Amino acid sequence: MLKVDGLNKLFGRNKAVDDLTLEVDRPQFVGIIGRSGAGKSTFLRMVNRLTDASSGTLTFEGRDILALSGGEKRAWQSDCAMIFQQFNLVPRMDVVSNVLHGTLNERSTLATMFNIYPQADIYRAIDILERLGIAENAAKRAEALSGGQQQRVAIARALMQDPKMILADEPIASLDPMNAQIVMDALRRIHEEDGRMIIANLHTLDTARRYCDRIIGMRDGRKVFDGTAEQLTLGVARDIYGADASFTEEATSTDMATLKKEYA
Ligand SMILES: Nc1ncnc2c1ncn2[C@@H]1O[C@H](COP(=O)(O)OP(=O)(O)OP(=O)(O)O)[C@@H](O)[C@H]1O
Ligand SMILES: [Mg+2]
Asked: Could you write out the three-class secondary structure of the chain?
């Protein structure tokens, strides 16, 4: 499926992603963890072609993703839907229209200009909202919803594209614990029920351990861990987050406390 080989991204002399090699050979739920600046977002952005790689290869089902351009590149971008920390909805637009935006790539300019959507798409959008438990908000403006609800609208918009994979960049970083759980549960369910690959950058270890089949740890652009939650011991966590700094980062230190208890 997804194959990354010797992938690099340079910003000037700074190596944001450094010789990254990994393979996801079935639709797993992959979590990427690491300190701020480790290269997590840059990696997802290269997969989605929002950022060009400096060197290396990236293939999906045998296709050279880095070589795509024009319409093929746009089609790929809708095959790997992105979800962001800040939801990226159109705040004043109603929820259904936000979800229908997920079909934007497939529609003619004229249809887009006049906001015309096929009836079948509208029904499908409402079905997806229902699946995510927020159909009763369909007619509300996106900005009137809570953060957790808005992120579920963003997930619905992603599903509207019927993506081959979902790339989530810190999807719960702006949410309170209860909404964070609702959103992660929704992603997990989509993964299990639809068999969709999900790659999520997560800023807490606990979340990655709870929801992901596989966890990749990045440090200074490099992959320093690739394994299951069980394999992610305190020593490994220290390696990913750094022995010193890890205890000063609030989100991480809570996780460290949990891990310490577990491995005590
Ligand atoms: N557009 C850019 N221009 C220059 N440098 C960049 C750019 N984007 C990212 N970087 C640098 O690349 C490195 C990796 O950044 P990236 O955003 O991928 O990290 P991250 O792991 O997602 O961090 P965070 O947890 O804070 O989101 C950092 O050193 C960052 O400063
Ligand atoms: Mg990031």
From this structure: CEEEEEEEEEECCEEEEEEEEEEECCCCEEEEECCCCCCHHHHHHHHCCCCCCCEEEEEECCEEHHHCCHHHHHHHHHHEEEEECCCCCCCCCEHHHHHHHHHHHHCCHHHHHCCCCCHHHHHHHHHHHHHCCCHHHCCCEHHHCCHHHHHHHHHHHHHHCCCCEEEEECCCCCCCHHHHHHHHHHHHHHHHHHCCEEEEECCCHHHHHHHCCEEEEEECCEEEEEECCCCCCHHHHHHHHCCCHHHCCHHHHHHHHHHHHHHC
